[in-house]
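Appendix B. Extra example for self-study. Work through it before the problem class; the solution is given directly after the inputs so you can check yourself.
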Amino acid sequence: MNKVLEKFETEIRRGVMQVAVVCLLDDEKYGYEIIKNLNNAGLNVEEGTLYPLLRRLEKDELLSSRWETSGSRPRKYYKITEYGKEIRIKWLNSFNAISIIIEQLKENIHDKGKGELYDA
Amino acid sequence: MIKGKVNYTMHNLINEYISKITKNMGSNQRKEISKELETHILDSAEARAAEKNVDVDEDIIKEVIERMGSPEEVAAMYPAEKTFSDKVVDQLKEIGRITVHFIIIVTMVWIILFIAFWIIYGSTDQVNFNMTALLIIILIYIVVVAFHLISKLKIFSK
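Solution. C-alpha cells for the complete assembly:
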C-alpha cells in the first residue's frame, strides 16, 4: 500500500512542482533556496529533480536567470517572466478546476463518513 | 563559508556524480549545469553538517548526493538542447569510433589470415589472398556497422 501511495505522489508531484516553483519566483531565488521554501511549505522535493525543472521552465521562457558570482560560490538566480505570470494564471486555474472536479466526484463515495477522508 | 576543507575525495565524489548527469550534454550546457549542481551539493552539505553540528565530510557529501536522486534519472529530466556544433562533434566522434574499430578489425583479420596461411602452406610468399581477405574485411565491416546501428536504435526507442 505504501508503494502505491509513493508512486502516486511521485507522479502528482511532477505537475505540482511546476506550479509551486512559479508561485515562488516573483522575487528571485537560487535553487537551494527554492528547495528550502518548498520543504517549508510541506512539499517534499527530490532535490536533483528541481534543477532540470528550472532549466525546462527557463527554456520555455517562463523563468529568466542570472549568475551571481560575488558570493562565496557562484549562484544562479531565477525569476518569473511576464510570460511566466500569464501562464501561471492559466496553470492555477486549471489546477483549481481539477480540485473542483475531484470535490464533485467525491460525492460518489459511499462510505466517506467512515474513513479519514481529508476535507478541504 | 564551509566548515572544514573540501578535500580531494569529496571533490571526486561530487565530480563523479555531476559528470554522470552531464555526460551527454553539449559543452555550454555542461559547464553551466555542473556549476549549478556543485553549488547545490556544497550548500546542501553545509546545511546538513550544521544541523548535525559536525564538519562537512565524505559521508555528508554521500548523503546529499543520495538525496538528489540517481544521476541517470536526473539526466533524463533535463531538456535536450544540443547546439549545431555539439551535434557536429558527436557525429565526428561517431565516425572516429567506427574508423578505429575498422582499423583494429582489419589488422586482426590480416594477422589471423597471415598466420593461417603460414600454418597451412608453411609460407606466405606465393600466396595471393588479397581478394579473400578483402571480402572478409568488408563482411566484418558490415557486421560492425550493423551493430552500431542496432545500439543506436536502442537509444532512440528508450
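Self-check: Chain B touches chain A at residues 1-2, 21, 32-33, 35-40, 42-44, 64, 67-69, 71, 73-74, 77-79, 81 (CB under 8 Å). If your reasoning did not lead you there, revisit section 3.
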